[in-house]
Amino acid sequence: MARWHILGASVRGAAHRRRGLPNQDAIGWWVTPAGESEGPSGTAFALAIADGHGSAKCVRSATGARFAVEAALDLARHWVCRLEDGPTSLDSLAQGIVERWQARVAADLEAAALTPGELELVAQEDGPAAGRLVAASPQIAYGATVLLAAVAGDQALYLQLGDGDLLVVDDRGRVSRPLAPDARLFAGETTSLCGPDAWRDVRVACRPLGAATPALILLSTDGYANSFREPVGFLRVGPDLLETIRAEGIDAVGASLERWLEETSQWGSGDDVTLGLACRLDAVSLAPASTEATPAEAGSPPG
């Protein structure tokens, strides 16, 4: 049975620093070794990231992103607990992530309703109609995307709503996407947890792993990919990280990750950047990965 190690970081974007805005991304994970308490490495894990929209209408999107990560990790625990009962329907997983997020938003609004000042800010930035829309549907204020990867034994769960990237890298450094792309995600447009019937926009897959178990699973918010001039440059990140982990070790990469992401935002998109990595321990100790991808073309390299 494969053992996994999780590392990740989330940094405030360079443009957000200049404008005095908070980091509106979020990241979280759990790892459970067999028969032990939770720690950094183990045989089952869940890794989730989220990106708050940050528009004027989404005045609580940083909180919405945190709720999205909490909901995803809770859903992953439920999925793991139900594995022995047989496959979980994809629709129930899609509905489960949205319902868990909505429940957290509803509890937050009950504790602290949107203030007149928040609604006035929406109206000032996006117009009176936007202010009325958010007042009528306050969960819009928490708008966020979410990505989740979880593995238990030889089963993997991949889930995504909205933009961002979920990639797998095999032992030879070859990159693929476990979820089909959503053609609606272009030019900054994205689906959202706050959208009507949001569960229908969730892309989700449950896969047996076996011999196809990834060496790395990579989750990132769109601020990372948007920092590269060409998509092929971003797709080189996974193989590069695999090579670096094999050469320098997981701890060294973990210690440098936040600095790398800050440099990527500064020289690239300026947006918040979040990256989570699930590393299969027996794969990251192999010889350097071999890949035919062209070198990265970002404002700053990942390492």
What would you note in describing this structure?
The protein has 303 residues and is α+β, with helices and mostly antiparallel strands. The chain has a single domain, classed as PPM-type phosphatase domain (Phosphatase 2c, domain 1). It has ten helices and eleven strands. It has helices spanning 14-19, 61-81, 90-111, 116-126, 128-136, 222-225, 231-235, 237-248, 250-267, 281-284; strands at residues 4-11, 25-32, 41-42, 44-52, 144-152, 155-161, 165-169, 175-176, 203-208, 216-220, 273-280. The strands form two sheets. The chain has a six-stranded antiparallel beta sheet with strand order 3-1-11-10-7-8. The relative contact order is 0.18. The model is unreliable at 34-38 and 288-303 (pLDDT under 50).
What does the secondary structure layout of this molecule look like, with pairings?
Blueprint: E1 4-11, H1 14-19, E2 25-32, E3 41-42, E4 44-52, H2 61-81, H3 90-111, H4 116-126, H5 128-136, E5 144-152, E6 155-161, E7 165-169, E8 175-176, E9 203-208, E10 216-220, H6 222-225, H7 231-235, H8 237-248, H9 250-267, E11 273-280, H10 281-284
Antiparallel strand pairs: 1-3, 1-11, 2-4, 4-5, 5-6, 6-9, 7-8, 7-10, 10-11
Helix pairs in contact: 2-3, 4-5, 8-9
Please name the defining characteristics of this protein.
single chain; Phosphatase 2c, domain 1; 6-stranded antiparallel β-sheet; 5-stranded antiparallel β-sheet
Supply the number of structural domains: 1
Task: Give the count of helical stretches.
Answer: 10
- Cα end-to-end separation: 30 Å
Mean pLDDT: 88
Low-confidence stretches: 34-38, 288-303
